[in-house]
Amino acid sequence: MTVADTPLDAVPHRRLNRLTGEWVLVSPHRTARPWQGQVEETAPAERPAYDPACYLCPGNTRAGGAVTPRYSSTYVFDNDYPALLPDTPPRRVDRDGLLVAETERGICRVVCFSPRHDLTLGAMAHDDIRRVVDTWVEQYAELGGVPWVRHVQIFENRGAMMGASNPHPHGQIWANEHVPHEPAEELRRQRDHAAGGGCLLCEYLAQELADGARIVDANEHFVALVPFWAVWPFETLVLPRSHRGALPELADPERDGLADLLGRLARRYDRLFGVTFPYSMGVHQAPTDGEAYPELHLHAHFYPPLLRSATVRKFMVGYELLAQPQRDITPEAAAERLRSS
Ligand code: H2U
Ligand code: ZN
Question: CB neighbours of 75 closer than 8 A, spacing ≥ 6?
Fold first, then answer.
């Protein structure tokens, strides 16, 4: 039974996230309800190419006293306020299995995407986005090569609404000792699926391409789609068409394909409500503990909070915090909006 066989777009239903095992409620009949809740401020769009007060602009002094050099493409530095430290001595607490804790080692880095304060991924030239992809490849290899690092999380928080501390185009990398919850759950389901045959995301992508309703954009090597189980209104999943487990496995044309698709997707987001669209995005790839992960299919998630305009965001509150996530606009309608933006 396919979605087209069932009028799911008209009735409340729940959808299974095949990567995490979570269900999401979809309430398409509710989209027209009036909104009298919080309206967010929009940040002024105009920014200077160089901001003397920005700690990420070339030549400026950071909060911790270090000086950001006069870099000309990407620039990576160890986070001055890291959440994790590489030299934490190992300790573990377990009181009757009730109070359980253990130390966690990690390395936190900041990646400046461009020396230009006023740019975003969507406004950057292809070659400059490609340089960001190459930097991610290098960082995954370097941090993943640290003997105790098992997981490398590359991510970007964009916009004050997502808690980004600075509008200068930048992302972060946290590399740590244990595979965190989200990627561990996704890995488990990909492994369970592969035990019965093929790759979960290769098969899922084939279904999405055949259906077409949730595809947002694509090129020869990468596809962006609103997942069938999306929780955030305009959530997307970016997948390589070929089975790849980590960024270093991408051949040169595939890295170009990823850079191209990231730029196109970011521009679609920005055009949707006419603002620099806020989001958290990140790349999920194979753990770096030296084991083989043939079941893992590299992908990136984009989680944007905006719902119906530049100023109305989705809140994960109430029923969602206490029971399960819920959405009104269907993933198919969201994909259609992004396709035509
Ligand atoms: P966001 O990606 O959420 O904006 O965070 C930026 C990071 O930059 C944040 O983790 C770090 C903060 O610790 N930072 C520095 O390393 N040096 C500074 O001078 C300010 C901010
Ligand atoms: Zn700056």
Answer: 56, 58, 68, 69, 111, 112, 115
Tens digit of each residue's pLDDT (9 = 90 or more) over 267-299:
999 999 999 999 999 999 999 999 999 999 999
Distance, in Å, from the CA atom of 337 to the CA atom of 268, rounded to the nearest integer, reads 9
Most ligand 1 atoms within 8 A of CB, residue of 111, 120, 172, 174 to mutate: 172
Decide: 154 and 282 in contact? Cβ < 8 Å. yes
Residue 168 bears catalytic tag: no
Domain regions of the chain by residue span: 16-26+49-339
Which residues, chain by chain, have CB under 5 Å from ion ligand 2? 51, 54, 56-57, 117, 168
DSSP class of residue 144? Answer: H
Q: Which ligand is nearest to the CA of 159?
A: 1
Alpha-helix runs per DSSP H in the chain = 126-144, 181-195, 200-211, 252-273, 319-322, 331-339
What is the rounded distance in angstroms from the CA atom of residue 44 to the CA atom of residue 26? 34
Ligand 1 atom at minimal distance to the Cα of residue 55 = 19
Fold of 16-26+49-339: HIT family, subunit A (3.30.428)
> What are 71-92's pLDDT values in tens digits?
999 999 999 999 999 999 999 9
